[in-house]
Amino acid sequence: MTDPEPLLSPAQVEAVARAAHEGRTDKAGRPYAEHLRAVAEGVRARGGDADQIAAAWLHDAVEDDALTEQWLDRAALTRRTKDIVRALTRLPGELPEAYARRILATPGALLVKEADLAHNADPVRLAVLDPATRTRLTAKYARMRGLLGPAPDAD
Question: Which candidate, 118, 134, 94, 109, places its Cα nearest to that of 38?
Fold first, then answer.
């Protein structure tokens, strides 16, 4: 029997995510890795653990075709990290309600999605977008927030 492959370190997960999204920009024209870093930092600030931080770095990788589902299957990551990444990967044509249900049903995924939504909906980040895009995205993020339930800091 062989020893299991060691898990990717946090620095290795970050490097994989940065390389996978190399050359990609967000809607504001900023390097996409800035969003990944912000989500990972948001997870850390919310008390997330190593699995959730790794998933934050990788949360858009499969959905954006930066990494394949096969890569995720074989990656030296915990099952929980892989489950969170899969939960956060929107499927083509998937209704927001089904997406939200999957996130809520996957342990650890909600905290990562909360950090993602917080960065996506950051007014400073949205301010650089054209008004129509800003309005559309603000409504999209608010709808998802509503489907996921009240924000953890809400009364």
Answer: 118
